[in-house]
Amino acid sequence: MLIVGIAGGTGSGKTTVVNKLKKEFPNGEIVVIPQDAYYRDNSHIPPEDRQKINFDHPDSLEFSLLIRHLRELKEGRAVEMPVYSYLTCLRSKETIPVKPAKVIVVEGILILTDSELRDMFDIKVFVDADADDRLGRVIQRDIIERGRSVLMVLERYHDTVKPSHLQFIEPSKRYADIIIPGGGENEVGIRVLVSIIEKHLAEKGENGEK
What is the pTM (predicted TM-score) of this model? Predict the structure, then answer.
């Protein structure tokens, strides 16, 4: 099993990179585990206070559960991945079953900030993008997917997203094996990553490994 970590700032194009990887390997070789599924359940916090949570801070994530799930997948056991709602800031009672695959892609803004999780990645990728481009994508996404106004998005960006990016996410870039500037539009960078994965799958196939 190859475990690939794909990090980068909010709106950098990580999801686009992941989707292009999935198109390159359409036969189930790749399973994607989003960091966002592992945000802590906030049912103990009053509803009016949940929107104030800084989701760009490492403390907002249950890294220990994500690490445990990756270990179980590596050992050949299926896991029940949490389902998290940005609208309620709660975990759903439902879970998503995830079976082991040849390649596990873990995607999220903070995945390179945790040393124990970082050590589990065979390949560490950082998707880089200009701050203005990232902000534009964040505004579009949060209005459409999370029901926020432009003013709400901008306030959150300046209060938590930008400071956390500078404090936690940008510094984690130094741990990356591969940096893809320009996000999902960088076809050369994506081809490099695809080639590495193809080489790994070919070697495993020659060795008769799963």
Answer: 0.89
**Among all chains, which residue has been given the structure tokens 């999935």?**
22
Residue 209 lies in a domain: no
Quote the pLDDT of residue 194: 95
**Residue at 150 is within a domain:** yes
Burial of 161 (0-12, 13-18, 19+ CB in 10 A): buried
| Domain span at 87 | 2-197
In a domain, 208, yes or no: no
Which CATH number is 76's domain given? Answer: 3.40.50.300
Per-residue pLDDT tens digits for 87-98: 788 898 899 999
Per the structure, how many domains does the chain have?
A: 1
Span 103-154, pLDDT tens digits: 999 999 999 999 999 999 999 999 998 888 888 887 887 787 677 778 888 8
Distance CA(176)–CA(125), nearest Å, equals 5
